[in-house]
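## retry 2 of 3
previous attempt timed out at serialization; input unchanged, resubmitting
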Amino acid sequence: MLSFELQAACPETGARAGILHTAHGDVETPVFMPVGTQATVKSLLPRDLVNDLDAKIILGNTYHLYLRPGHETIHKLGGLHRFMNWPRAILTDSGGFQVFSLSGLRKITEAGVEFQSHLNGDRHMFTPESTIDVQLALGSDIMMVLDECLEYPASHEAARISTARTVRWAEAAYAQYRRHGDDGRRACFPIVQGSMYADLRRSCVDQLRELNADGYAIGGLSVGEPRALSLEMAEITAPLLPADRPRYVMGVGMPGELLEYVARGVDMMDCVLPSRNARNGYLFTSFGRVAIKQSQYKDDPGPVDEACQCYTCRNFSRAYLRHLFLAGEISFCTLATLHNLRRYLDIMREIRQAILLGKFPALLKAARASAADQPQ
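## retry succeeded, writing output
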């Protein structure tokens, strides 16, 4: 049975701590969810995610899995959990963001989105109903409805039309979910849109609340807008959502931003930044970002971060990691991704503990002061 248990709330900010109960285990919130777009978190094995990182929930992507290997294939092989041998919770994105990023390869209609595969050019159609059907075949614990994600900037009129379409699609998707998937073992989240316009965000929330959904997502952020504007939209939107349901901001953020989104009432986040930065040689630490290719690390015997207890920091030096990166060794991606994701998950665990102990305002103040002291 999927449900959300709110355990604590900070009276001075919007920060919350809770537990998301799923059919594949409990997820403590606030939580950062590693991205496993194609049924894998790039360069890591499920045992890494379980044993080394203790990740409770990861993401898959409907667009990519629909195209390859196909949701029918995954369904025949026992669903996404068995297919990728992942024992814990899975959230699947509807694929809307990926489809809308195709630009010239897609066409929006009232019925849905026609698009060409980036793999072979074949034409496909996503509708609000079909994306629910695909996710039901995948067997994810949390499904997302199809929404329209506008790039920034967008005019108010374009955003108004788009937001209205997103609401209609959410209603159609949720009706499909109620008919075929609402068995108490999974959840379906509609997505609040409205670009960077507060009135459209509020209107969208008012309409989506009528669905009485299991949880709600805030979409349309990290699409090119200034970070301050992204935080402003989260701050406006999150408090309007039901207090007894999880709130998920999609596609954010940098390490220092995680705490800021939590302070605005966000329970769930995801982003490709920790794994993508890892593959490109950038490691997040308690003292800032390390570019491991720099010559200063050539003979450095120390760990990436002495404050970190990840497998990488406990066993390997900066000099060795620099060598692996410059040599193009695959193992670098594994070790770097392990470290970066551990950093993100550790941040979220620290935040959660601070909320439970009533110390979140002090943590927030200290983090902001530290950020202000760092060179821009």
